[in-house]
Amino acid sequence: MTASWPGRVAVAVETPRHTSVSGLLDYASEQPLAPGTLVRVPLGKRDVPGLVWEPGPEAEAAPPVLRPVTVALTALPPMGADWRALVAFAAAYYQRGLGELALAVLPPELRKLDDTQLARRLKKLAGAPPAAAAAPPPALPELSEEQAAALAVLGTPEGRAKPVLLHGVTGSGKTEVYLRAAADALARGEQALVLVPEINLTPQLEARFAERFPGRVLVSLHSALTPAQRLRHWLQAHLGQADLVLGTRLAVFASLPRLGLIVVDEEHDPSFKQQEGARYSARDLAVWRAHHAGVPVLLGSATPSLESWQRVQEGRYRRLPMLQRIGGGAMPRVRLVDMNLLPRGTQERVLAPQLLEAIEKRIAAGEQSLLLLNRRGYAPVLHCGACAWKSGCPHCSAWRVFHKLDRTLKCHHCGYSERVPRACPECGNLDIAPIGRGTEKLQEQLAALLPQARVARLDADTTRAAGSLQQQLAEVHAGEVDVLVGTQMLAKGHDFRRVTLVAAINADGALFSSDFRAPERLFALLMQAAGRAGRDAEQAARSEMWVQTWSPTHPLFAALRKHDYDSFAAAQLEERQAAGLPPFAHLALLRAEARTAEAATGFLHDAAALIDAATAGVTIYPPVPPFVAKLADVERMQMLLESPSRAALQRTLAGWLPQLNGLRGAHKGLLRWAVDIDPLAI
Ligand SMILES: Nc1ncnc2c1ncn2[C@@H]1O[C@H](COP(=O)(O)OP(=O)(O)OP(=O)(O)O)[C@@H](O)[C@H]1O
Ligand SMILES: [Zn+2]
């Protein structure tokens, strides 16, 4: 489709929605430019990147004098119609500017290149020799009955007409199902897109795909690539050269002209939700994209999100169960340690004596133990016994964490870091002490308790350097570690073969969180963590998952003991339905950031007053501060909108948000506002 009169093109430019300039702008171009062409256009005094788009309805109006397109990057094949549809949907649904979103999801390097440079890159890529099929394809493992059954369903058009939830317990071999489904897509001459939650899981999966598909082009897309790598991989996907694209959430926007399959591994994982800018859910967009493109989508998890689970109950998704571990191994036995029963004076100990003993036995047997503690650093706060000073962050409503190794106090929210003071900064008392425990301290204590053991730690602090995570994981896989301490980074996806004991040291925090999703997340985390133990069928029978808790009678633990996801999900869904919460209601969160809490609140109040909630069919809750109210000297408030109808909520937002910038003038100190559709945490 071309513009409605010759020489005119509609261009999506990078301006946020709800500013005075929004949507598409018209420019003049002598050469006809197909929708999806990357261009640079003048905007005010600047020259900005843009994408040619189908003209909007208003393009029929009489032509004004238009400024010309500065350059058109015609060396790059235009972005396809499916890609544009995805971007247009995402922009509308998440209430962002079309051009803003479209350009944000392209590799940043792309906008730095001129047409000649681009042409050169493309030529180089075209000339690159195809990956040599050096290694012969490996012998395929014989499928388990459940894998075969799942694939048989996926093999029929009816079987994949709906989104498929591959509900496979930990160690049931979901990856093999992805590999076979991808092989089918490749055999049909199509591309497969595989999304994983964490960068740290991509290399392991990448290796398995690379081994399975020698001679095929496999590229990854995630934020840890260099800009040049990311551009190259993106171009390979866009040109249709890459057969397999493996990536984190941003890869859902990869341009894939031959797309034939989307896999979302660990679909329940919160990291599929982008937490800034356009706060999109890559999982939800994957489902939309697959439906729009008419290709199968496979959502895999041992602990599906309650959203996906509910869609199975409603018959909108098809569930394919895999309830046995490969090799028929048992699930680890769950052992709860009631911390209330520990003898007085020993409760401050890091590990209950029976757990310590169990770990010692594993060490003696040459098996590995994995200890989870969801807090990095040495201690969450430093405290002065004389004046009650605590190591607060001067810029945030949060404590600064004591890191012993580099002797710093660090704010995990804004990054503010200082050397640990020798004495209390308030009263000069020399006796300031850490309270509580982080992974650093746990490692130190374990090293003291288990002098014979090789104790390692894996968290965001130990894996900062490039390649360090892979190296540490390799050491674990090679059996060079006896006890591994770490954050939830450890609980996900890893196929550890020597681990027979997993312990959650302090899981209780989440039980009392005010966030309605906290139980769901904790349950998933513990199930996933348990799933790291006994993955070798030989050892499965004696594998154990320990949980230290002060609330052993909590119903969540009863379900965990039986590895009973279904009954946990049913109970949670019943509560959610009674409370009118997702997946039975739809939420949007309006966030305001300001110099003062009053300005943020005032803005939200005025915003709320613009909606006639009863007519709109939405409920508006009063503004409340988020968990960390002040962050980097900015005060934050948020206001929840809820509706049983997604359409009603979308309609309300679309009519309402454009009015909000008009309120800014009345609230001195308001810095910015933003909306989060389907927020994960409230
Ligand atoms: N059909 C098979 N025959 C033999 N081994 C298999 C088969 N399918 C999978 N495996 C092996 O079983 C192990 C577990 O598989 P995989 O890692 O895919 O589990 P998973 O379902 O993804 O578990 P998790 O949810 O914990 O990540 C892997 O080592 C894999 O190589
Ligand atoms: Zn801070």
From TrEMBL:
UniProt keyword annotations, A-Z: ATP-binding, DNA replication, DNA-binding, Helicase, Hydrolase, Isomerase, Metal-binding, Nucleotide-binding, Primosome, Zinc
Entry binding sites for Zn(2+) 2: C393, C396, C411, C414
SUPFAM superfamilies given in the database record: P-loop containing nucleoside triphosphate hydrolases
Catalysed reaction, written as an equation: Couples ATP hydrolysis with the unwinding of duplex DNA by translocating in the 3'-5' direction; ATP + H2O = ADP + phosphate + H(+)
InterPro entries assigned: DEAD/DEAH_box_helicase_dom (IPR011545), Helicase_ATP-bd (IPR014001), Helicase_C-like (IPR001650), P-loop_NTPase (IPR027417), PriA (IPR005259), PriA_3primeBD (IPR041222), PriA_3primeBD_sf (IPR042115), PriA_C (IPR041236)
Co-factor binding details: Binds 2 zinc ions per subunit.
Domain Helicase ATP-binding: residue ranges: 155-322
Pfam families: DEAD (PF00270), Helicase_C (PF00271), PriA_3primeBD (PF17764), PriA_C (PF18074), Zn_ribbon_PriA (PF18319)
Binding site for Zn(2+) 1: C384, C387, C424, C427
Cofactor: Zn(2+)
Annotated GO CC locations: primosome complex
Top-level taxon in the UniProt lineage: Bacteria
Enzyme superclass (EC): isomerase
EC number: 5.6.2.4
GO function term, MF aspect, one: zinc ion binding
One GO BP annotation of this record: double-strand break repair
Family statement: Belongs to the helicase family. PriA subfamily.
Subunit architecture: Component of the replication restart primosome.
Role noted for this protein: Initiates the restart of stalled replication forks, which reloads the replicative helicase on sites other than the origin of replication. Recognizes and binds to abandoned replication forks and remodels them to uncover a helicase loading site. Promotes assembly of the primosome at these replication forks.
PANTHER family: PRIMOSOMAL PROTEIN N
Name this polypeptide is given: Replication restart protein PriA
Organism per entry: Rubrivivax rivuli
Name of the encoding gene: priA
